[in-house]
Amino acid sequence: MYKKTARELHQDFVEGSSSAKQIVSYFLDRIHAFNPKVEALLTVLNERAMAKAEALDEKRRLNKPLGKLAGSVIIVKDNMHIKNEKTTCASKFLEHYKAPFNATVVDKIEQEDGIILGKANLDEFAMGSSTEYSAFCTTKNPWDTDLTAGGSSGGSAVSVAANFAPLALGSDTGGSIRQPAAFCGIYGFKPTYGRVSRFGLVAFGSSLDQIGPFARSVEDIALMQEVIASPCQNDSTSIQEPPPAYRQELSAPIKGKKIGVPVALLEEADPVIREAIEEALKVYKSLGCELVEINLSSLKYSIPVYYILATAEASTNLARFDGIRYTTRSKAAQTLEEVYELSRGEGFGAEVKQRIFLGTYVLSAGYQDAYYKKAQKVRTLMIEDYKRAFALCDMIALPTTSTTAFPLASIQDPLKMYMQDIYTISANLVGIPTISMPIGFEKKKKPIGMQLQAPLLRDTEVLTFASHFAKATSFHTHTPPLFDKEPSL
Ligand code: GLN
Predict the structure, then answer these.
(1) Beta-strand (E) ranges in 361-477?
(2) What is the pLDDT of residue 108?
(3) pLDDT over threshold 70, residue 185
(4) Among residues 72, 156, 171, 176, which one is catalytic?
């Protein structure tokens, strides 16, 4: 059962060949047997999931209408709220925090009868690219447990790649869905900014954050988007149009469409990545697409611009964690000032503190124009650069990462870690929809991903292009050998 997609599990359930209790207990068993090898999950919602399964079986017995996700199981990144359950953001500071309400995405999933099995590990407050900045554990790559799974949504990506569930949600501020998807050999989709409600997602960089799905099939990505991509009154940046019929669009023709390739940027990637991209582009050519060279030269500024804007927004967003609300209070604190100082000092990890310092600095009086305002201006230049590029093509193809998954603990220099996002950050700064999809393997065991990017609101086209590639290739069908079996409990 572990290889089944969400659509297949749904079909089995609707037809009556499996009960929700059977499906949920099967995947919970798998998680208990295999999670210690990869440490993808921070919380497993055993009782809650079994109770939901029982209720769903009863609903089917009574012939009530069943939702789109009935029979499917889902993992959620631990920076999204599930009422009365912990939301830790992988921070010691929130170790004991329980959410008082559901994130909109959680409500949407449950309205469609999806059952959430657990909450996935991440870099603390989603800041990082390897999950090594989690205060609780480091998630390992299921293809080789000495390698990183990527981050910050590493736990969500691994949950899907190791078949703990066919679907997971992550959040992407600068690449946190796409980079782990590429390293783990699965699909990771970042929708247009505002397409999915951020209500109940713990904010990192509010003008960049976007929730999106991981899956092993494009159809499942489209299915999840149908569920979560609707207008939300509780998020003022939520797009007010109803979501498109994602799955219906998947087989729309792409013959004659133009794919833009920023050739100069490819030089920055390892040869093995470049070769895989060239092969993938040949597939598109054979499907009738035309390749055109485009210039995205402003992308070279994306890392400095992002690390000014994202840290500025983070320093403001994280001010609410003060030892008084939400967070653990320092036992040593005597005065009010000490409550703030010591609680924040003890609660936040080193990377988060570094970002708060940086963000506070770039916003401080006298520096704001030199850094923050300038970065906003360069962001506008990037938006214009993309507009010019999209005048020449329908879709842009570029690497997700410049290398395949790196060994754990091999990157100690924070600047080197920041360079991980060189190909992904621009889509967040510009707001456009983008997917990372599996296009090959280095030496048969390290997955390689390619990004597709489309203009704002053309989310369905991204999925259509990915779907045609999936039909012509089989990279997305491979399971990491360590997990391609039933667990022996
Ligand atoms: N790796 C980037 C960072 O550390 C992006 C993180 C994210 O998308 N949440 O900020």
Answers:
(1) 395-399, 434-442, 446-453
(2) 98
(3) yes
(4) 176
Alpha carbon separation from 477 to 161, 215, 440, 470 (Å, rounded): 10, 11, 11, 9
State mean pLDDT over 6-19. Answer: 97
List Cα–Cα distances, 428 to 27, 124, 196, 401, 464, in angstroms: 33, 19, 14, 15, 21
The pLDDT assigned to 128 comes to 97
pLDDT at residue number 208: 98
Collect all residues with Cβ–Cβ distance below 8 Å to 112 and sequence separation of at least 6. Answer: 67, 68, 69, 70, 227
Let me know: does 43 contact 118? Beta carbons within 8 Å.
yes
- Ligand 1 centroid – CA 204 distance (Å): 9
pLDDT at residue 489, as a whole number = 55
Sign of dihedral through CA atoms 72, 78, 80, 82?
A: positive
Average model confidence (pLDDT) across the chain = 97
How far away, in angstroms, is 171 Cα from ligand 1 center? Answer: 9
How many angstroms separate the CA atoms of 208 and 181, rounded? Answer: 19
Q: Which atom of ligand 1 is nearest to the CA of 420?
A: 1
Length of the chain, please?
A: 489
Partner residues linked to 210 by β-bridges: 172
Question: Domains, the chain, ranges and CATH?
Answer: 6-250+432-483 (3.90.1300.10)
Give tens-digit pLDDT for 375-407: 999 999 999 999 999 999 999 999 999 999 999
pLDDT at 423: 97
298 is catalytic: no
Question: What residue ranges line ligand 1, CB within 6 angstroms?
Answer: 126-129, 152, 172-176, 204, 310, 420-421
Atom of ligand 1 nearest to the CA of 425: 5
Mean per-residue pLDDT, 189-213: 98
How many whole angstroms separate alpha carbon 457 and alpha carbon 176? Answer: 20
Centroid of ligand 1 to alpha carbon of 179 (angstroms): 10
Distances (CA, A) of 459 to 133, 174, 387, 474: 31, 18, 16, 23
Is residue 77 flagged as an active site residue? yes
Whether residue 152 lies in the annotated active site:
yes
Q: Which atom of ligand 1 is nearest to the CA of 307?
A: 10
